Amino acid sequence: MASFSSIGVGLGGNVDVNGLIQASVDAVKLPITRANGLNDQNKLAEARISTFGQLQSLVSSLQLAAGRLASVTGWNAVAATSSNDKAITATAIGGTVETTFSVEVSQLAKAQVSTSASLAGNQAVGAGSLTLEIGRWDGGSFTAGDTAAVNIEIGATDTLSDIAGKINGANAGVTATIVTDVTGQRLMLRSKTTGEDAGFRMSVTDADGDMDDGAGLSRLANGLSSDPGANAGANAMARINGLFDVSSSTNTFENAIAGVTFKVTELTTAPVEITVSKDAQAVKKNIEDFVVAYNAANQALNDLTKFDSATGKGGLLQGDSAAVTLQNQLRNVVQSISSSTGPYKTLSSIGLGMIQGGDLSIDNAKLDEALKNPDAVKALFIGADGSAATVDGVAEKIKAATAQLLDTNGFFASKDKQLKATMERNAKEIARINDRADSTEALLKARYTALDTQMSKLNALNAYIAQQVETWNKQKM
C-alpha cells in the first residue's frame, strides 16, 4: 500500500492512518492470506496436480510392464548362444524357431587402405585436383559404383596436412590421415566402411599438365591411384553347416539364417555351434519388471495416503478418496483370476504373493518351478486362448484397467481437470477480493483525507478563537 505521509497533521500528527488503512485492507484480504485460505488452497492444488502426474507416470510404467506379459511376442523370447563367443556371437528375434547350426569363418571384412609415396614433410605439394571414386577392385581393374565421384581442388601452397583436411571435409567416403616415418610424410586413405564394394580410387590432375615428371601433385598418384592388392576392401566370408557359403560387407551376418544375426570377430579353425532356444530368463525378467512397476505405484500411494501418528501429519493425499479408489483398483486387478484352463489361475499360484502394505513379493523357487511349464504361465497372463484376442488373462486385465485410467477421459485426466478448475475458481475469487481491497483502500484514503482536511480547519479555527479570548482577557485587565 502506498504511504500516506501527509495524513495526520489535522488529526494531531500522532494517528497512524497508514496502519489503520492497512489493517482494513488486510481484513478484506483475509480469505486469501489466512491459513487454509485461497493462497494455501492453490499451493495445495498445484502440489496435487504434480503428485497425480507422478502417479500417472508410475501407472504408465505398470501398463507397459503388463503389456509385455499380455503380448504374444513377450512369450516368444529366444536366446542364441555360441560355442565360441570369442570368434562368433549371435542374437535372435522373438519367435525364431529353435535350431542349431555351425559356422566357419574364413575371412573377416575389412576396409581398403592405400598410402601415397613418401614426400618431404610440411611442404607445398603442388596445385591441381583430386577425384575420388567409390567402387570395387577386381584383378587390378576398378569398377566405380553408383556413388557420384567427388572432385577436390588443391592450391599451390597446400601441404599434405591441408590436402588431408580437404578430403575429410569433402564427404568422399574415405578418411585421410598423415603418416610420418623416417623417409618423410605419406597421405593414407581408408574407406569409411568395410566390404569389397566400398573400395576407392583416387585420380590426380596436376596443374602443370605433366603426370610423369615426378613433381607436383602427380606424386600422390603413386600408391593412391593403383590396385591396392592385399589392402583392398573385402567382405567377411563364412560357411554354414559346412555346405553353404555366405558373404557380408561387414562382420555381421543378418540374413543368412532367418531370425538370427551373428557377428564374427575371428577366423575359425573348427566349426562354431550356434544354438537358438527358448529364453526362460527373459520371460522371468518381464515378470520381475512387472512386480517392480506395480510395487513402485503401490508404495507411492501408501506414502501419499498414510497418516503418521508420531508426527501427527498425513501424506499429501491422506483422506483423498480418489487416491484410495485408485489404489484399490490396482490391488483388485492384480488379484484377479485368469480364465486359464491350466494349473495357474492367480499370480499367487506362480509365487507372486501380496504382502502387508499391498506390495507383491516373488517366491523365486515357486516361480522357477512354474516356468518349467511356460505355456501354463503364459495362459495365466494371456488367458485361455493364449493370445491377445480377448481380455481374460491377468496381464490383459491389468493392461486394460491401466489403459482406462490413462485414457484422455480417464481417472488422471479427470483429476487434473478438476484440480485445475479449482485453481481457476480460486484465481477469480482472489482477483475479486483484491479488487474489493483496492476499493476499500481508495475509499478509506479519501475519507481520511477529507477528515484530515476538516480537522485542520477546525484546529485553525480553535487556535484563532483561543487567540481572541486571550486578547479579550488582556483588554479587561
Automatic annotation (TrEMBL):
Pfam family, one: Flagellin_IN
Biological role: Required for morphogenesis and for the elongation of the flagellar filament by facilitating polymerization of the flagellin monomers at the tip of growing filament. Forms a capping structure, which prevents flagellin subunits (transported through the central channel of the flagellum) from leaking out without polymerization at the distal end.
Coiled-coil regions, chain positions: none
GO cellular component: bacterial-type flagellum filament cap; bacterial-type flagellum hook; extracellular region
Subunit structure: Homopentamer.
Flagellar hook-associated protein 2 N-terminal domain ranges (all copies): 15-112
BP term (GO), one: cell adhesion
Residue stretches making up the Flagellar hook-associated protein 2 C-terminal domain: 233-460
Protein name, UniProt field: Flagellar hook-associated protein 2
Main subcellular localisation: secreted
Homology family: Belongs to the FliD family.
InterPro entries: Flagellin_hook_IN_motif, FliD, FliD_C, FliD_N
UniProt keywords, alphabetically: Bacterial flagellum, Cell projection, Cilium, Coiled coil, Flagellum, Secreted
Source domain of life: Bacteria
